[in-house]
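Q: Convert this sequence to structure tokens.
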Amino acid sequence: MSPSPPLPDELSSDALSARAADCARDLRRTAACYPELFDTGEFADTPGQVANMMVYGTPRHDPGVLRSPSRLALWIFPLDAAIDRDATQRSQVRAIVEECKDVIAGDDPRTPLGRLLAHIRDDLAHAPAFGQLGPLWRTEVAAMLDAMAREWDWKAAARQTAAVPTVKEYLGNAANFGSTCVGVSRLISTGEPEATREHLPAIIDAANATQRVMRLVNDLRTFKRDRQWEDLNARMLGLDEHALRELIAEERRACDRVLDRLAQSCPGVAEDLRRQMMITWGFYFDGGDFWTV
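A:
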């Protein structure tokens, strides 16, 4: 994979550490406002981890403009817990997905999960770019919700019949990882000038390519926890660790080609996506995990 461009001198390690600390404080304040979602030990370290991912992964942006995408990234964790682990009936999954889709469409929330999403929506709506990119944001958040619900269905079917999706189907459902919708939030909040109507399809293709890589790298790290929680993981679909590493390498090479093409027209966005992927790569390969278990 091509190396990321060097950082300018003003973005030294100390400067980025200070930015990450500012971002983490905002996320901790946000979490404190929603104790129903975050008042558990499993999310104790998540604000700091998300802040590091956002700031070090997109160092050309100030923490202020990363506030909404960082909060969305934080919100995904209680959403994932509500669907992936807490929901025991399909009707519960449907209720969560329907409320969240109603909220992104502009309706009033009914639950703490919906209220935090509405807060993020309203914050993003103040950005000038929301007029152009708001429909895309709603599409990508809805895609993540549908992907989470689809994985719940797969797990329910596996408990009944031992049937599991194919690796291709599983990787095609990588929107449940959530990084593309967070990336669109970043385009909105930063007013990204490269995110023109002409370039958006290529940007989303590249975001989805990095999302697939991050989905698989996550699975490589979290296999033991996923097995304990009866969660789906690429390792449970007929891939041993060696085969999964080969698939990751294949997806990473394909992603690198997509990012190289995008860099010709959108160098800033391509840099953000590449850095975000590599920060995530390093986090998981260094033994990190967003869940405290």
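Residues 1-10 have pLDDT under 50 and may be disordered.
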